[in-house]
């Protein structure tokens, strides 16, 4: 099935993907919607996201980014997810009522401000410091404190979570995707959370069992597509955004 989009709606043209948590969040979001966007992989390990070819599209140098027909480029995974939901509202991963959207964004905001930022910066300053020093300011003496804050805030989320099974009760949302991907990343880089937590322990198992969880680990452009922004794939104009 093809989403009914036109140049006027600004359909997605090209996704700049990468082997990092934020792009994985967006991949999982797209997979849950049953969508694929033509993609290229930006090699962040080699710093391609800090090179001119990429910075001309996304001056922030971050991944993911979504280029639209007409040349507009959206950065920030959350903003891209919001845009995708506007174009393709079902299944609703943010919400199909004002209240549902507000509740999703409330939990999403809690996750990003209280968990993902601390896990990410702790990784920058500790396990990933060799990769990031020289690219961004690093504060290795802050890493231990950031890890402690992340674990405290994860327990804080657990205490606020209702009977679930998801953050927004019986609704599976983007907030669940973001928290899952970042907790899974923490597990991979030596920042595991306490799986004995009353609510988030079973929630994590439930999330891990979703088909999109292992599938989202795989880059969209890993099967013969281009590997950098300089070599874009060719696709039929007028219907690249497929379900």
Would you write up a description of this structure?
The chain is α+β, with helices and mostly antiparallel strands and 243 residues long. The protein has nine helices and four strands; from the N terminus they run βαβαββααααααα. It has helices at 21-33, 52-55, 77-87, 98-125, 129-132, 143-160, 174-188, 200-208, 212-215; strands spanning 12-17, 39-41, 65-68, 73-75. Helix 1 (21-33) runs parallel beside helix 3.
The SSE order reads EHEHEEHHHHHHH
Shape estimate: globular
Parts with pLDDT < 50 across at least 5 consecutive residues = 1-7, 223-243
Averaging pLDDT over every residue, what do you get?
88
Helix content: 40-55%
% residues in beta strands: 5-15%
Q: Which short descriptors sum up this protein?
A:
single chain, 243 residues, alpha+beta, 9 helices, 7% strand
Structure, briefly:
This protein is of the alpha+beta class and 243 residues long.
Outline the secondary-structure elements.
Elements lengths: L11 E6 L3 H13 L5 E3 L10 H4 L9 E4 L4 E3 L1 H11 L10 H28 L3 H4 L10 H18 L13 H15 L11 H9 L3 H4 L28
Parallel strand pairs: 1-2
Antiparallel strand pairs: 1-3, 3-4
Helix pairs in contact: 1-3, 1-7, 4-6, 4-7
């Amino acid at each position: 099935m093809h989403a009914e989009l036109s140049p006027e709606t600004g359909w997605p043209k090209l996704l700049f993907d990468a082997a990092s948590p934020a792009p994985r969040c967006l991949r999982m979001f797209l997979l849950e919607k049953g969508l694929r966007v033509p993609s290229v992989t930006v090699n962040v390990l080699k710093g391609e996201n800090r090179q001119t070819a990429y910075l001309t599209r996304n001056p922030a140098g971050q991944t993911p980014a979504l280029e639209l027909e007409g040349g507009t480029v959206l950065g920030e995974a959350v903003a891209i997810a919001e845009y995708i939901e506007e174009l393709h509202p079902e299944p609703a991963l943010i919400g199909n009522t004002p209240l549902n959207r507000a509740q999703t964004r409330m939990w999403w905001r809690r996750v990003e401000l209280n968990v993902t930022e601390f896990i990410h910066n702790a990784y920058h300053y500790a396990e990933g410091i060799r990769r990031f020093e020289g690219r961004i300011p690093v504060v290795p003496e802050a890493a231990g404190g950031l890890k402690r804050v992340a674990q405290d805030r994860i327990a804080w989320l657990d205490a606020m979570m209702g009977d679930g099974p998801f953050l927004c009760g019986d609704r599976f949302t983007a907030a669940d995707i973001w928290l899952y991907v970042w907790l899974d990343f923490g597990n991979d880089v030596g920042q595991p959370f306490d799986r004995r937590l009353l609510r988030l322990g079973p929630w994590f198992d439930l999330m891990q069992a979703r088909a999109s969880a292992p599938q989202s680990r795989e880059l969209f452009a890993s099967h013969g597509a281009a590997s950098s922004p300089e070599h874009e794939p060719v696709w039929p104009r007028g219907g690249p955004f497929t379900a």
